[in-house]
Amino acid sequence: MIPAAFDYVRAEDVRTALTALADGGEDAKVLAGGQSLIPMLRLRLAAPTLLVDVGGVGELRGVRDDGDALVIGSMTTHDELMNDALVREHAPLVAQAAATVADRQVRHVGTFGGSLAHADPAGDLPGVTLALDATFSVMGPGGARDVPASEFFVDYLTTALRPDDLLISVRVPKLPGWRTHYEKFQQAAQAWAVVGVATAVRRSNGTVDEARVALTSMGSTPVRAHTVEAALAGAPATADALAEAAGRAADGTTPMSDGIASADYRSHLARVLTRRALEAATG
Amino acid sequence: MTRISMTVDGVRYDDDVEPRTLLVHHLRNRLGKVGTVVGCDTSNCGSCTVLLSGRSVKSCSLLAVQADGVDITTVEGLAGRDGELHPVQLAFHESHALQCGFCTPGMIMAAVDLLTENPDPSDTEIREGLEGNLCRCTGYQNIVRAVHAAATSMRTSVPSTPEAAGAPAPSMGEEVTT
Amino acid sequence: MTVTEDRAGREVGRDRRRKEDARLITGRTMWTDNVSLPGMLHLAILRSPMSHARIDGIDASAARSMPGVVDVITGRDVADVQGSLPCAWTVTPDMAHPDHPPLAVDEVRFAGEPVAVVAARDHATALDALEAIEVAYEPLPAVMDIEDALADGSPLVHQSLGTNKSFTWAFDSAEEGTGGDAAAAIDAADVVVRRRYVQQRVIPAFMEPRSVVVDPTPDQITVWSSTQVPHFVRFFLAAVLGTPEHKIRVIAPDVGGGFGGKLQITAEEFISFLVAQRLRKPVKYTESRSEAMLSAHHGRDMIQDVDVAADRDGTVTALRVRLLANMGGYLRLLTPATPLLGRYMYNGIYKFPAHRFECTGVFTTTTPTDAYRGAGRPEATFAIERVMDDLAAELGMDPVELRRRNWIERDEFPFTTVTGLTYDSGDYAAATDKAMGLLGYDELRREQAERRAAGDRVQLGIGVSTYTEMCGLAPSRWLGSLGYAAGGWESAIVRMLPTGKVEVLTGTSPHGQGHETAWSQIVADQLGVPFEDIEVMHGDTRTSHKGLDTYGSRSLAVGGYALVEACKRVVEKARPMAAHLLECDPADLEFVDGSYRVKGTPGASKSITECALAIFAAHDLPDGVEPYLDADASYDPVDFSFPHGTHLCAAEVDTETGQVRLRSYVAVDDIGKVVNPLIVEGQVHGGVAQGIAQALFEEAIYDEDGNLMTGTFVEYTIPSSADLPDIVTDRTETPAPGHPLGAKGVGEAGTIASTPAVVNAVVDALRPYGVTDVRMPCTPERVWQAIRNGGGRP
Ligand SMILES: Cc1cc2nc3c(=O)[nH]c(=O)nc-3n(C[C@H](O)[C@H](O)[C@H](O)COP(=O)(O)OP(=O)(O)OC[C@H]3O[C@@H](n4cnc5c(N)ncnc54)[C@H](O)[C@@H]3O)c2cc1C
Ligand code: FES
Ligand code: FES
Question: What is the tens place of the pLDDT at every residue in B96-129?
Fold first, then answer.
């Protein structure tokens, strides 16, 4: 299949990209790696009138150490996330989850920002940013603003980005003393997550001081499993306590039933995988 | 129409393309590079895999305009100028890693890319490294064998630099404008 | 003549690397979609978004007036000339066989059915124009499920038939005199196991989407098509559309896989042909993957009710099978025959004294089904191998022991089974013993017991599948007696050129099977010429005009022997020339290693290539010798061949998530004489992979409106390299007396054997949980559900 016709602008920098987007109106779209967008265009499930290609905008790419956080450019590819020394050291959860995205070819082209802006509830990286309490740096016609991860994912394939906004970078706090783990369950190697669990745990001696758990594919957006987190705060880091807390992972979630899995099964997986993720992050 | 220029298998091409043209269609229909094929419309099968600046990509999931100014290697540009097969091509032949051969161009390019990054992969690393390429004929076992064989021959015969593994044949200085 | 024996073993049996690889690994392949002709138009097909609807009208005026669009043609435009897509097999005299127009005229009966075609200067424009065509559909009720379609008051797929039933075909061993009364035996039995197995609908999913190019010149119409069956395509284009057969040339260039999925006469071929004729221009149509998923036929989709009866000691006494088979919206080339091709195999390798079989073909508003790798035989093997496992569990016996008790022993061949087929050979014990050794069966059973005792989260299951199959399709007489429109012979032409090089024309049409290599090996041995000196040509009705193509694991068993015969004739044709050159009597010559030697006179010899040159020069031809060295032969098998084997696998099942991981897989196959072990091993790997895919991964799913929910590779999960295990392959070799080449056929064996092996392993792992079946594909969720519903604990 071939996409429907559209106009195309290759942006030189953030400013020209924003101008082009503003001029393009409602039906203009950012083209990052294209790994989600182009398949949709090919199947003619989307038909934007203008694509603004930010692939050549150097300032959107790369990882910067910013003291207590990393700033990851939106155009940083999955492959770069996996292999970047700063990410591996300070945000290993991002590297670990990026490695589970799609396949090598897609990871060479698909970007962090594209994944987040696309906001597929089965995507691996949205949940990770939620677990890490990342902050999204957004630029629009009205200037720059920061959006916390907890407010970024609004609904199925919908974010706090407006059509003429550009996601510039994501600020990922370093979590010294924390251990993290991403547990993904797939039907086949190339498939998206049936359920995924991103965890970050800080513990001292035998006690969990603080834990964060974010779930992929358990609703129309990634969600934090707050009841699990609450149950873990101050709990002993024992298998029983972790299992007990993980048993609440599906509480308050609204998983979908679709061709891949029923809501029931997803809830069950959320509990099992949360336990496994917590075991890995505390073990 | 958008003006683009790219080097494919060592030859530079300058063309005006419709922005919606997929890279794979540009390669096949405009440049005659029909060795690269299309097997799906959802970026799953990997038959269309080529190297873009030395790294594997699915040419069905990129617009030709996104590949402006880059160097592309397809399966047609892998053999040496004298026709000497690339070690991965040879290994696919030796290990009977293909039947109908439709997935083969993409599979070979994906394997070349994998070996660039990991010159001595384990079975599991090969299997996971090729997860983006579907083959309906072989059950993959001989493909895995072929990648091992190629890895061994590349490690023993050529320095394992990215150039040796995956870079396109040196430009022949031709220029083609269509 | 002892040509074969003299030369045996030099090339045949070697693991030659394939000739065809050279072009495939360098991208120099000729796929149909690579064909590009001056002035060629590109076609795009508008397909029904509904599974069942009346077409009230089509407005194509806006599309027609788009720049670059040459024409838009609807079903109504060609209603008088487009004919009906053929079904070649009338399985019962009263089989309901409605018309299958290539372009729907008044009604659509599955989502994806073609309703209009656009011809445009380029492909993108043709696709754009599809969006400008307005079709007024009047929705009609859809019915996808086989049993729903048979229920009273069901919506009718073909109103005029008054029913959704196409046919019912029955066999009863008591009535046919091949055995006893199954119903009575079941009533009288100690133990009866009754099971319902569901063969889910799957999609062949060859990797190369189908493509067709038609070039109508005033002299001839040339059709390039990505098909397994160029000879069939030519015949049916002529027979249905009325273009004289000699004016049609069909070429199957390089074809990217088929698995039965390209054993079809397609709507797309007919439509492209009609458009090219109408516009008098070359046209190309290449489908997208999502079109292929909708329009290329699907496979399987049957409900199997199986009752097996046995004595307490495990001796089986009767087998009753009731089959409901989903035909889809129409009958295609072999749609009704596909479930019936399996009907001879339901008894498997066992000595059933009584058998009843009944199959009903049912129309639904879904994509038509047809042959998919194994066509009927995998389904049959699945049913018998699953139910034997269930019977073993019921009796508390080891599944291998139960099989041993019932299978045909090696000294009982030839053995006429309860279905009336005569198996020529087999040694099931040898294959099974070998497989058990390779798998480490006993150790795995010990580990299984330990894990069960310990209540491990990950349980171990061992799956057994002992199969035989009938292949080498097929004796023409047999086919004719069953209502099939064609024969089952195959042909070959061998010609030695003046320089001693050899050209071979085969009527088979390979698409991955490596015939160019295997055929060269056979000819090299027969004629004593180097492997490299042989060129094998196929898939072009102009050059290899005699043939019946490639499917049903027939090419070697049938086509291979035609080739041997043709070679023998070449040897005989050159013999008078050799005798003339050597000044001796032809009868005094023996043909060895490519040379005619005068018996008893060492040193006096002439090579066949020398004879070829002398024959071509024709300066001194003996009487009756013609000035060219070629020969032609055909072969019509006297019976099927019966490869068999034992496949075993060990599966680990995570009882928490339901995920299945195959830990090891052993395939021991007895396929007779092997021409090229490398190619055979590849066929087994690929076949097993497809069988595993049916067991664990793949299913075509419709929603309640008849939309295909698995219409791309995102939803239809083809396993990747990371999802499949290594397969240990080995062979046993019992001679196949009925077959001159001794080769039994291997193309489908892996698929036939593996699906039940895998499901048996999954169920075996979970029996302590009260699980007796898991519906395919055994996805993690299905397995988890089965454990939940099983009610047991280890
Ligand atoms: C075969 C396959 C398998 C996959 N499997 C997985 C998987 O397992 N897990 C997973 O998480 N993902 C998976 N993906 C998706 C992959 O992660 C994509 O790379 C990613 O979702 C999109 O990144 P991109 O750069 O290609 O974005 P694009 O496709 O270019 O864009 C996606 C969307 O985001 C918008 N956008 C992109 N960048 C910006 C920006 N800077 N500012 C504002 N809007 C922007 C675009 O307008 C578009 O709407 C898979 C994709 C494929 C093809
Ligand atoms: S054609 Fe590119 S991934 Fe299938
Ligand atoms: S060789 Fe046929 S698809 Fe891989």
Answer: 999 999 999 999 999 999 999 999 999 999 999 9
pLDDT at C8 over 60: no
| Whole-angstrom distance, CA of residue A51 vs CA of residue A5 | 10
CA of B44 to the centre of ligand 2 (A): 6
User: Of the ligands numbered here, which is closest to the C-alpha atom of B22?
Assistant: 2
Bin B107: left if φ > 0, else alpha if -120 < ψ < 50, else beta. alpha
* Domain segments of chain A as ranges: 1-55+63-175, 178-282
Place domain B87-164 in its CATH homologous superfamily. Answer: [2Fe-2S]-binding domain (1.10.150.120)
Best CATH choice for the domain B2-77 from the list 3.10.20.30, 3.90.1010.20, 2.10.109.10, 3.20.140.10: 3.10.20.30
Position in ligand 2 atom list of the atom nearest CA A105: 3
Residue C673 contacts by C-beta under 8 Å, 6 or more apart in sequence? C12, C13, C733, C736, C741, C742, C743
Predicted structure pTM score: 0.95
Give the pLDDT confidence score for residue C662 in this predicted structure. 97
Q: What is the DSSP string of C391-437?
A: HHHHHT--HHHHHHHHBPPGGG-SEE-TTS-EE----HHHHHHHHHH
Q: Cβ separation of A191 and C715 shorter than 8 Å?
A: no
A178-282 in CATH: which number? Answer: 3.30.390.50
Tell me the nearest-neighbour CA distance from C119 into chain B, angstroms. 18
Our answer on whether the CB atom of B101 is closer than 6 Å to any ligand 3 atom is yes
Q: For residues B78 and B80, what is the distance between their CA atoms, to the nearest angstrom?
A: 6
Structure-token pair, residue A131: 């677990």
How many whole angstroms separate alpha carbon B53 and alpha carbon B73? 8
pLDDT, tens only, A67-89: 999 999 999 999 999 999 999 99
Q: Are C55 and C710 in contact (CB under 8 A)?
A: no
Mutating which of A12, A103, A186, A187 best tests the B interface, going by the most B Cβ atoms within 10 A? A103
* Type of residue found at C615: I
Q: What is the dihedral sign for C-alpha A236, A240, A241, A246?
A: positive
Q: Give C3-28+489-635's CATH code, choosing from 3.30.365.10, 1.10.300.10, 2.120.10.30, 3.40.50.300.
A: 3.30.365.10
Count other C-beta atoms under 10 Å from residue B15's C-beta. Answer: 18
**Chain B residues closer than 8 Å to C721 by CB:** 126-128, 130-131, 133, 135, 140, 143-144
Q: Which of B22, B23, B34, B60 to mutate to test the pocket of ligand 2 (most atoms within 8 A of CB)?
A: B60
Q: Do B136 and C726 touch (CB under 8 A)?
A: no
Ligand 2: which of B22, B25, B40, B109 to mutate, most ligand atoms within 8 Å of CB? B40
pLDDT at C740: 72
Give the contacts of A206 (CB within 8 A, at least 6 positions apart): A236, A237, A238
Query: Measured from the CB, is residue A164 less than 6 Å from ligand 1?
Result: no
Give CA–CA dist B12/B5, Å, rounded: 7
Q: Which residues pair with C69 in a beta bridge?
A: C120
CATH no. for A1-55+63-175: 3.30.465.10
Protein residue with its CA nearest to atom 19 in ligand 1: A110
Using CA atoms, how far apart are residues C704 and C715, in angstroms rounded to an integer?
17
What is the band of C552 on the pLDDT scale with cuts at 50, 70, 90? low
